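3.2 Worked example (two chains)
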Amino acid sequence: MRERFEGQLNRLRDDILTMGSMVEEELRLALKAMDELDFSLAREVYAADKAVNDKRFAVEEECTMIISTQQPNARDLRAIIAVMNMIVDLERMGDQAKGIAKAILHLEDNPTQAQPTELAEMGGIAMEMLRQTMMAYANRDIDLAQQIAERDNDVDELYAQLFTRIMVRMARAESPDKCETNYEFIRMARELERFSDLATNVAERIIYINNGLMHETNTDWERMPA
């Protein structure tokens, strides 16, 4: 019975890695569409997002089945519950990628202008965070999981820079169309900022699986003045 249960847990682990790869592909499509302002590619993100959603529900059903039939011990139950939280965050990360695609499609009838350089930087870091998160999960690497929050801080800083830049642009804009375009740039940046937050959430669950401790890895608040 234990051997069979271990096999189920291994399949669950493989499913998480597969779902992570699916989210990575969805983000890749969204970032490429953003970089090239490719509206056709942006529409492909929607299909990729549906596949991620379907995978989330399949894994959730699998977790429920394992819990109901195997009566796992405390350690195994902790791992399964953590997985159920991780798939929700991964599914939401897919939603953020789809949000980028939505913003791109809103630019289809608007005049184009140079994208803020921060967007591409944020996208690159978000992709790296997702890959590191899946690597930390596959290797049970707590140190790597803890490092992911540091990259989230980088994304937050870039978002603040972009927001300030866009506000200045919008204050000087002579055309309402340009204001709308700048708004969509902010929207894309916000989706990437949220994507990175969710990657940090997944990293925290990885730490929890391995040592039973749940805490926020992003400790920016500790440096804030009283």
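3.2.1 Second chain
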Amino acid sequence: MTLFPWDYFWIGFNKFNFPDLFDPLWVGSGILLLILIALYVTRTRALHRHRPYLDMWEWIFWSGLITYFLVIVGSTFQFDFAVILVILASGLGTMAWARFRRYPPLFEAYEHQLARQRYLARARSSRPEATIRTKNVRAKQRKRR
């Protein structure tokens, strides 16, 4: 360290200035980007009928894609280290906010809705007359025609 700690915020993020952080950060961003794409594809295929879960994965995917791609671009074009830290903090913060603050109440409401639908479907199919038409109903339908 040849500079004061706060002076490192305003120098370019490259291998010469940050030898311990540069390679792990841009390689880790690339790996996490690939993992994020794979998770997004598998989870959206598995949850294609559940809209709140798809919406959450959209939030996580786009905020992660932007964050990790900007870290790679910032490493390539030697952005200031402060810019890299702002990109990481805002992107990871957005991902955490979407996963742990925005969507859990929506998931809870959706689970209640699914439970109500399962209960009503079970109640309808538990009575035999709900699934079997009687002769009187058929006769009334013929008379209407």
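3.3 Remarks
Residues 81-126 form the longest helix (46 residues).
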